[in-house]
Amino acid sequence: MLCEENALRSSVFIMNPISNDSDTNRLLQVVCWALTRHFGHEAEAAEMLVRCSHVRFAGQWNDDFYHHEGPFRSAALLHYSSTHGGTTNFNGFHEWYAAQELGEAHSDTMEHFRQSYFDS
């Protein structure tokens, strides 16, 4: 099942596994949530972006990468790539990220992550 259409109101995304690791799948569900809530992606498009990127960057990013970056920064990286022509060059990412002033969105996502990842 694709991410639910009412993702902005939903506390949890329901989707088929992407990774072989259940913890990573829970984190990627929060990545989908952040893409819809803070980056304006439709739910279905957010899930497809995460799925396609998981395959596309498999040689560079493993499950540990997503856990290191966390759900919000992972969402920001995927959004950056998708809005910059599908780039795999992230040289301008840090400047872009800083210019977006995403502190509140980051905090909101981390609270959602805490609730859906640790409290469930």
Descriptive account of the structure:
The chain has one domain (22-118). The chain has 120 residues and is an all-alpha fold. Residues 1-11 have low confidence and may be disordered. It contains five helices and no strands. It has helices at 22-39, 43-56, 63-83, 93-99, 103-118. Helix 1 packs parallel to helix 3.
Biggest beta-sheet profile: none
* Rg computed from alpha carbons, rounded to a whole number of angstroms: 13 Å
List SSEs in N-to-C order. HHHHH
Helix proportion range: 55-70%
Q: Structural class, please?
A: mainly alpha
Mean pLDDT: 86
Low-confidence stretches: 1-11
How would you summarize this macromolecular structure in one to three sentences?
The chain is mostly helical and 120 residues long.
List keywords for this structure.
5 helices; 120 residues; disordered N terminus; mainly alpha; single chain
Give the topology, please.
Layout: H1 22-39, H2 43-56, H3 63-83, H4 93-99, H5 103-118
